[in-house]
Amino acid sequence: MRVLIVWMLCCTVVVAAGTANLPQVPAQQVVARVNGVELRGATLNDYVEAVLPDFSFHGKVQPEKLNEYRRAALDRMVLHELIYQEGVRRRVAIPPARVDAEVALMQGRFRSPEVFQHSLSEHGLTLDQLRAHIQRSLVIAAVVRRDITLRAVVTNQEVRAYYQKNLPRFHEPEVVHLREISIPPGPLAAKQAGDVRAQAAAKNTSAEFDLLASRYSKDDYRVMGGDLGWIHRGGMDPDLEKTAFALRPGQLSPVIETKAGFYLLRVEGKRPARLVPFIEMRDKIRAQLLAEKRKQLSDALRARVSKNSKVELLAKF
Hints:
Radius of gyration: 30 Å
Number of domains: 2
Strand order of the largest sheet: 5-4-7-6
Low-confidence stretches: 1-19
Shape: elongated
CATH class of the largest domain: Mainly Alpha
Strand content: 5-15%
Largest sheet: 4 strands, antiparallel
Mean pLDDT: 89
CATH topology of the largest domain: Triger factor/SurA peptide-binding fold
CATH superfamily of the largest domain: Porin chaperone SurA, peptide-binding domain
């Protein structure tokens, strides 16, 4: 809810100052009507600017991309108007003290009350108009909280049931943590690969292999000391996989010759195939189920407020 409030307010007061270079829809142009309520270009510009600060500060938005963002912003703007009208229909009441608190929060973002007032004036807003913006956003937030936030609950039983129902998804194959040195084909490649292996075998430590990989390896992983990370069966060149999975942790491979060149492997660790325990997957499953519930509830709210409503999109982007 806090994000919704701050987003809708900052789009008018804070962000607009940095995005003036963006092409603007005429402020008084009626871009949509929602049950007879006219939505104008000035508000659409605010919505677009609120989601584009990083791009628009540097003027990097291409015209076709800007129109794409405008369409998305218009869709969100219409949805907010529908939700607001639903809040009015439900007689959602916002205490004046709550509006005062939000005004104080915004004012605290500025160096002084005078700077705050100047920013309002600069963007054509009075304090009363700002309070109206806040009151409106709080009505929207109240509907969202009641219809989505409070209802998007995932129980421990649901998490456990999902895990049990989808056990095959939580099977991990055998994996190996590898480091690699690769030397491309060439007249001296075999000799170089042998020399590098001799140096690696002399100490046979991760640190020494890291140093040799950064010095001699010719693939992209050399900048990471040849560290390929954890790899499962079927996830690497078959010419290398058989050797990789046969090695023990800390063991160095012989030089392996392939069509792509010569390779030297070192196993940093191994993990057998396993069923990932519920305790390791619990939080991830909960987050997934929560996101799905929020999406379902959001879609249901959109459908509910749109039903029997008359929406006219008048701007063409």
